Amino acid sequence: MINGYILEGRSEEALRNFCDMQMDVWVKPNEGTFVSVLGACSDLAGLSEGMQIHQVINKTIYQKNEVVISALINMYSKCGD
């Protein structure tokens, strides 16, 4: 669903959906979710949102995932930090 929002150019809605997802203890983001939502941050130049998502990633098994790390590097380079 998040990726669908991004493909439609609705990155803000993708980020809102991710935030809503974080409130549900039964729903856990996976690699694809993190990559997509970091892409939304890149689209919006949302450095602070990207940094918050980075903190969430650091608490998961995806913190050393090469695909997620690549998305983080991309987000930081596009957002200027």
UniProtKB/TrEMBL annotation:
Lineage: Eukaryota, Viridiplantae, Streptophyta, Embryophyta, Tracheophyta
PANTHER family registered for this protein in UniProt: PENTATRICOPEPTIDE REPEAT-CONTAINING PROTEIN, TETRATRICOPEPTIDE-LIKE HELICAL DOMAIN SUPERFAMILY, DYW DOMAIN-CONTAINING PROTEIN
Gene3D superfamilies attached to this UniProt entry: Tetratricopeptide repeat domain
Xref: InterPro entries: PPR_At4g14850-like_plant (IPR046960), TPR-like_helical_dom_sf (IPR011990)
Stated name of the protein: Putative ovule protein
Molecular functions (GO terms): RNA binding
Native organism: Solanum chacoense
Listed GO biological process terms: RNA modification
Superkingdom of source: Eukaryota
